[in-house]
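User: Hi! Is it possible to get a structure for several chains at once, not just one? Here's what I have:
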Amino acid sequence: MSVVSAFLVPGSPLPIVKRDNPPWGALAVAMEVAGERLRASNPDTVLVYSTQWFAVLDELWQTRAHSVGTHVDENWHEFGDLPFDIRADQEMAEACIAAAIEAGVKSKAVDYDHFPIDTGTIVAKHFLVGDADIPLVICANNLYHDGETTETIARVAVEQGDKLGRRIAVVGVGGMSGSFFRHEIDIADDHVAVPAEDAWNRKILDLIAAADVAGLRAAWPDFAREAKPDMGFKQMAFLLGALGGGYVSAQVLGYGPLYGTGGAVVHITP
Amino acid sequence: MAQGQIVAGYLAPHPPHLVYGENPPQNEPKSRGGWEQLRWAYERARATLDELKPDVLLVHSPHWITQQGHHFLGVKELSGKSVDPIFPNLFRYSFNLDVDVELAEACCEQARELGLTTKMMRNPNFRVDYGTITTLHMMRPQWDIPVVGISANNSPYYLKLDEGLEEMDRLGKATAEAIRKTGRRAVLLASNTLCHWHFHEEPEIPEDMSMEHPQDYNGYLWDMKVIELLRQGKTNEVFELLPDFIQEAFAEIKSGAFTWMFSAMGYPNIPAELHGYGTVIGTGNAVMEWNLIKAGLAQAA
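Assistant: Yes, the chains can be modeled jointly so their relative placement is included. Here is the combined structure:
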């Protein structure tokens, strides 16, 4: 299999734009460790699925050769800009589009100047790829796709990487528990807003760290209902699809609050 | 300073397809038309807006989603190219808009006084969402009237529906008070679709109107019921039905603009002028006007 490393990371911009805040700085450090490990796995291509790139018609794939610009998060605009410089693995993305259509998932290429690349993708690229010259294949989170379809998309993408001889790092971008503070808080005291959700996050991370995929799948429906994870935790479904449904080991590099939600940085070894 | 007033409110939905169908110079993709009934509806709305001679247009858009509070555009001039993340093939629009920062700040402050979390958006690199831009273009393509852009706090989705819409009600009251205090002659734009059930695949030729139809019959029936009640001026009845309408028709008015606008206008039970109705990728869209001058609730210029 062509997957050489896999990572689960949060898509919040807070660890970048406000890393001097200790709870968010700790996640930034964990993301940097993940970045070192990703680059050490020597991938040819990074396959990224971010819950924050919404699609409602078809599955979308980024094929623009070079996307450069400055993004401002729609919620955290006061903390500054998110510059980005992203190169696409066009050959693999085009192959993914064709194969996804073949697999019954209508797919389209996105190749437009000024296309609004989502915050989560930019955050992941910043920490995990950094300035390394590694191209990305980025695909959208179609809001109507369930976990099974999401796994299929990831599996199909990795198959195309195999055919093209790519070494692939896979990144699932999205949050853990979803409850957040709606009011202004003392950010230095940020914490997971609901203790029961904090407990759920820790339980799920324990299962992931133990490579207990059967246990994870069994707990998933209750986790989704009771902890309201970002998009039902579809980013993890994407990772499992890319990993062929299982993996050797995983290490939680960081876990903490992001304005009340839960964020985790996990390195998965295929 | 004369006391400000709201002179009208419009239901002004934002499918980018309407801009695409019109082929304005600001939009890169070019079409062979399409969605004419809705675009003609907007032509009529443009004409009545012109007669109102407002100082400012306030727009509440469901595509600027915020979690921590209700946000207001707070940079005097914002420009750039807005590419729709869902329909980048249809909407790549170069915009340049003037913001009425004084009124935006007043709205922000009034809403905070009413207990809402609020925030001014001061980042000059901010990308204005396509919902705001589409609604403003369709209502006033000259871009010669200052605007106030208001985010859609996700409270109707995050909290219980009634709790979320209660926040939008307060936001509307705050908006009205800010308009009154700042002496503005204001028009409100609720950037919302009605029934929001939509296609899941885009037609090969997006503007092929032989493919366009309501996605859901029950949703269509709901749209007709709500529009008819609004045409009869039965606002109170519509708001009683709102939770069922939102639930059954997946109505985008859940995001709050409709409630915000009616709250600011004082929920007048006056007949709406329906400029037109049509579907876009199956969703139901009505362009409607509540003219408070004609109703004797505001003064002519």
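The radius of gyration of chain B is 18 Å. The first helix of chain B runs from residue 16 to 22.

User: Great, thank you!
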